Amino acid sequence: MMKKNFLKKAVTMLTVAGILAGAVISNGITAKAEGFDDYKIGEQVKETFTYEKEVFLYKFSTDNTDSYYKLNLAKYGEGDGVAGIEIYSSEDLDDASKVEDFSTADPDRETGRDMVKKLKPNSTYYIKATTSWYGTTTSLNYKFSIEKYSTDDHADSLEDITPVAINTPITGVQNHVSDVDYYSFQTDVAESFYKVDFKVVAQGYLNVDWTIYEDPEMTKKVCDDSVRENKSNVLDIGNKLKANTMYYLAVTGGGDQYVQGEYTIQICQSKDDVANTGVSAKEIDLNKSYNYSIQNNVDEDCFKFTTSVYTGYTITFKNTSKEQTANIEIFKDADLVDSIKDCSVGAKSSINANDRKLTLTPGKTYYVKVTGGEGATYTVGINATAPGNNKAKSQSVKKAKQVKISWGKVNKATGYEVYRAVKNGKYKKVATIKSAKTLKWIDKKVKKGNTYKYKVRAYAKVKGKTYYSAYSAEKTVKVK
Fold first, then answer.
1. Is 267 helix (H, G, I), strand (E, B) or coil?
2. Are 58 and 130 in contact (CB under 8 A)?
3. H-state helical runs in 81-239
4. Can you give the pTM of this predicted structure?
5. pLDDT at position 137, please?
6. Phi and psi, residue 154, nearest 5°
7. Which of 9, 39, 127, 148 is 20 to 30 A from 170 (CA-CA)?
8. CA 395 to chain centroid
């Protein structure tokens, strides 16, 4: 009977106080705002529940940092039942202002349970401690504390988003499983390929996920990936990102909510050195070699060239990669459909002799597409038919020394040019043959003991324009 009167008196007192303040607690008991005891972050509070559904009220304020707070709740000593904590952002303690609630299970003693929650800076929060039990004991002891867990280093809202400069690493901390760090980055004015270089360092189970979006509402996902603690990963985004466009990056975590991990993220740009469509293909000159690379697994390098008066052509294509394969295709039209030549070349290999040959229509534009594994490097060129059967022979004429050079005929040629180099020097043109029928020339300006190198190319003049073939094979002769 004595216990019953005590409970009745306590409930009556709380009810009267609540009527004066008009603040209603969800379990039916009322409490006025003046009834909230001040709590200071870092302190431990110990209380005793003496009847079922008893309520203790506290309030505390956060500092001016955007931070996470850890609340520990534990039972101690004797007593049955469950102790619970509810946190609100309003002294009305209504459902709309509830921030978090959790409770101790019956076996929890002393160490209790932890809960981490991010709270707004410079804000007041309200705590309601409650209990319920149906045991034989008349009281339940509980204790709680709130400590600052960590300060959030990057915004978790788009209003305070962190801008990232391309090719510049930025470091962040994944504070909690609920932590979200938002970044934005602006692409270059030129279409480029991009990669994400991501590293995570943590002690314990932690997954860090990142996602790139096209829109600030974060509904149009471009790509995503996940990295475990103490790991790193470089992800090729794949297709080019749009030029001069803002993109949005969200970094989230998963795993143990009490494990923090530092990460470094870098958006790496690789400008596309050659266009990937026939319409915007890079124009190349005949009889020249060009060196390029495959920057991305989806990278396609497209070239175009216009044939001259000659009909016979050869392809120069050498894959200079140590590991990657490369592929070359030749097309008649800019739509790059139905190739007339398609050859794959292994690492450190060149296109074979049979595949090098092309028969093309004079005065027409053709297209070349090169693909391969990421990082493949290559040399490419289209050569008009070169004079064949090039020969060079030293001979003596009336005690003088001279070199006789001869070569094979090239169809459509107007004439030929002869080039010479002394020893390992540079080639210089030493003769122009103005007749297509003349297939030899004698070099009389040579000296005994010297070594000379010769090569020949054909030329054709059509409507005031001069076209050249490729050079013939090099021939070396030593004058004795």
1. strand
2. no
3. none
4. 0.68
5. 61
6. -135, 155
7. 148
8. 65
